[in-house]
Amino acid sequence: MSPVKPFLLIATRAEDQAADDEYAAMLRAGGLDEPQLHRVRLEAAPMPALDLDRYAGVVLGGGPFDSSDPEDAKSPTQRRVEAELRGLLDELVARDFPFLGACYGVGTLGVHQGAVVDRTYGEPIGAVPVTLTADGRADPVLADLPDTFDAFVGHKEACRDVPPGAVLLASSPTCRVQMFRVRTNLYATQFHPELDVEGIVARIRIYQHYGYYPPETMDEIIDRVRGAVVTEPPKILAGFVARYS
Predict the structure, then answer these.
(1) b/e per residue, 3-33, with b = 16+ CB within 10 A?
(2) What is the three-class DSSP state of 170?
(3) What is the DSSP pairing of strand 117-118 with strand 99-102?
(4) What pLDDT is recorded for position 31?
(5) Helix or strand or coil: residue 48?
(6) I want to staple 151 with a disulfide (CB 3.0 to 4.6 A). Which of 53, 65, 191, 240 is the partner?
(7) How many angstroms separate the first and last alpha carbons of the chain?
(8) How many helices (H) and strands (E) does the chain have?
(9) Average pLDDT of each block of 10 consecutive residues along the chain (245 residues)?
(10) CA separation (Å) from 63 to 19, 26, 60?
């Protein structure tokens, strides 16, 4: 089924392979063709003028920016990206416009809505069991997921709790806020709904020197994730596309 309007992917990954892999994974998980998923690489150039009425929904991918970094430690590019995302989220939230933020998206939407985002609940790279709350089980975007499923994570920061007024949809043993919803149509996940085993292996290699893990442990981490069975998270993107097409 083709959406009447395309979706929009906002990307922030400066590494071409990581950016292209993320786009391909979003297409695959969402069941979309390239004309159905436009992409803006926000790290490469200022955000263009966007007419949201042209789009069925907005997806914000992950990336190495950390919302909780001290302001003076952020690069000019990160500060620009964050300012432009704040402006976009002002409009998205006001309109209750369909939005799905993955990993970096949970911090971005969380900060925008008043959550505390810090390093209290960071998780090392790997698969974790994610369990839906009662609200998660009732949410139409998550209708095809089991109550508990494994998902890939790897993040230095996380929301301490959901933003005021938001609905907690999923948790893991080491990070309470794995997914939440703002209003009716804005979603964010701490885990990566687009990643399969080969996808996370590629990212482990690309981000070897970005502080996610000691570089000398890369092969050990790759061996560990290759043993994971992660099949359910892409259903979130498929559910999002199906609901808002």
Answers:
(1) beebbbbbbbbebeebbebbbebbbebbbbe
(2) strand
(3) unpaired
(4) 96
(5) coil
(6) 191
(7) 9
(8) 7, 11
(9) 81 94 96 97 95 97 87 93 96 98 91 94 95 98 98 93 97 96 98 94 94 94 96 97 97
(10) 9, 14, 10
pTM of this structure: 0.95
Q: Residue 106 burial by CB count (10 A; 0-12/13-18/19+): exposed, middle or buried?
A: buried
AA identity, residue 148: T
> What pLDDT does 1 receive?
46
30: tokens are 């969402």
**61 within 8 A of 102, measured Cβ to Cβ:** yes
Residue with tokens 């939230």: 93
**Nearest CA-CA partner of 36 in 241, 243, 235:** 241
The owner of tokens 């003028």 is 49
Instruction: Give the pLDDT confidence score for residue 188 in this predicted structure.
Output: 97
CA dist 56 and 185 (Å) reads 11
Q: Please name the residue that has the structure tokens 């609901």.
A: 243
Helix (H, G, I), strand (E, B) or coil at 161: coil
The pLDDT of residue 224 is 95
